[in-house]
Amino acid sequence: MIYGAMKFSIGGPLKLAFRPWVEGLENIPAEGPAILASNHLSFSDSFFLPAMLDRKVTFIAKAEYFTTPGLKGRMTAAFFKGVGQLPVDRSGARGAGEAAIKSGIEVVERGELFGIYPEGTRSPDGRLYRGKPGGLARVALATGAPVIPVAMIDTEKIQPPGKVMPKLMRPGIRIGKALDFSRYAGMEHDRFVLRAVTDEVMYEIMKLSGQEYVDMYATAAKRQIAEAAKAEKEAEKAAKAALAQAAKQAAGESGHGDKERSGS
């Protein structure tokens, strides 16, 4: 009931304001379990996709959204629960992996749709990054549920980093045909199989999205970008300090020369 109310109050205005287009809706089964594996461009991905489907989609979200204290924290928790998000504790050596797998299996075994982002985090630059071989593949092989590749299109352009007001434009969603991995049944702990399943799904997402593929994890790319930005700031700081020192030295030499001329 809460999900339906949230979908009506949020999904309706989203569809009215942004008019997202969808291709491949016929690939979503009318009933029964399935895993929706999508690229991840924007925070809004988890809202646009469910808004366009008749069935409930359950995604996972970091536990911090559900445990923040205060009124704002309680409202945020209620919101995420209402839109079908499941909290996942990302602490610990293995992070969200095991919690995501457990949550995904439970959702699928209830005969529902489970949504997951194989990249593990949002793309930092709009490109498609290497899928993590844990959650998606293990849930698929443990449950036997079909995997449906999904491509979100242009959602990152609606509200780029640093922009307060969203841009009214039409994002898109392409839904591919279901992938069957029953040939790997019982092999959910084989790392080579997990890698093969994940890569096959990412290849289908790449074909649907038209994104450039980068053979590295998005988390590593984000670290590189952050380190490059830090290095650039440090270089700018050093350059300003050097210029200031040079100016100070030049002023000192000029003042010394004036004194010598005045003394002569």
TrEMBL record:
Keyword Acyltransferase: yes
Compositional bias of kind Low complexity: 242-251
Domain of life: Bacteria
Compositional bias segments (type: Basic and acidic residues): 255-264
Cited Pfam families: Acyltransferase
Record InterPro entries: Plipid/glycerol_acylTrfase
Positions of the Phospholipid/glycerol acyltransferase domain: 34-155
Keywords: Acyltransferase, Transferase
Single GO MF annotation: acyltransferase activity
Protein name: Lysophospholipid acyltransferase family protein
Region annotation Disordered: where it falls in the sequence: 242-264
